[in-house]
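Input chain follows. Return structure tokens only.
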Amino acid sequence: MNLLILGATGPTGRILTHLALRSDDSVTAFVRNPATLGDLAEKVTPVVGDATSQHDVLAAASGHDAIVSALGRSTSVRAGELFTRASAAVVGAAEESGVSRLVWLSSFGVGHTYDWASPTQKTIYRTLLRSIYADKKIADERIRSSALDWTIVYPTRLTHGPAQGTYNAADRLPMKGNPTISRADVAAFMHQSLHSDEWIHRSPVISD
């Protein structure tokens, strides 16, 4: 499979990229700074660009089987319109280039999933993460309204732990406290979703 990965050098995207390469997928890593590729530099096709620019994403998208976004704001709690602008760029570029498959990383508690959150989670989402979650909500709604074969992934609180392979994934999961899931398991789920039709036009919630 020929993949265009946005956020390939981030903490989740890097794991996803390694998984794809080990599965003999061809990977184009869309990055702002190729120096951040590190050990991936000789294994992927790097494309330098801005994920919020439809022109840049379109230039990279042609010829790929799918686009995957693992974009994030690192430790920042301010969205800076990253997700709204990137979703517009990606949807527009995908539709124009004819790349129909999109797997997009969001967060549990965004949009309709907020209603399913535990009291602890809701407190965090409406305070600390308010800016980012509002931005992600607009992005997710834009993707759902598109003509793409999309999957929007909603993990609970991300950790840097190893993959467990025992996570739960469903259209809705019961929540208690502030559950977690490792970035490694999220990356594995996203990669699996790319190679299956099971989660097309669905928004899976995943958690340990």
